[in-house]
Amino acid sequence: MKDAELRSPVSFVANVARLPQKGLPVLVEADQRQREALAAEYDLLSVESYRAELLVASWKRNGVKVTGRVEADITQACIVTLEPVSAHIDEPVEALFLPEQSKLGREGFEGGGEIILDADGPDSPETFSGDTIDVGALAEQFFGLAIDPYPRKPGASLDVAGDDPPEESEFQKKLRSLLGKS
């Protein structure tokens, strides 16, 4: 049962053995239980909505390309006031996969295999085994990366109370006199 514990709350396993020519459209809309699991996993106050629209298509000879978007409405705690802060996530999803047994998947860059990548394009291909890829878990990774690690309520700041400039220390006064600035 360990595998079940590690599975994404929004897991959707796509069979990539025989993909349609136009690709396999996948829609993942999280229900209440899945949204609560996502909120717990990412230390969010709540996840009001979560939707991933993906297209799983053939890439090169035996690879797979996953493209689409993940959108979510979340509520986080402000890092200053701990008050709720709402945020909308709208993140593009793009990833390439090669079967483990493929020459490029086995050798990768170290073994002399060549893969030409666009710096603005997707990351280097990941490998997969068998005939399935968990595209739901992939979309969740992009969701997790899009979450603001330091959410702030508008107007909240970490400034010390009061608008008066802090009193200069003796060291700062001496330094100022040595530099000849008043």
From TrEMBL:
Pfam family, one: YceD
Domain of life: Bacteria
InterPro entries per the UniProt record, alphabetical: YceD (IPR003772)
Disordered as annotated region, ranges: 154-182
Protein name as annotated: DUF177 domain-containing protein
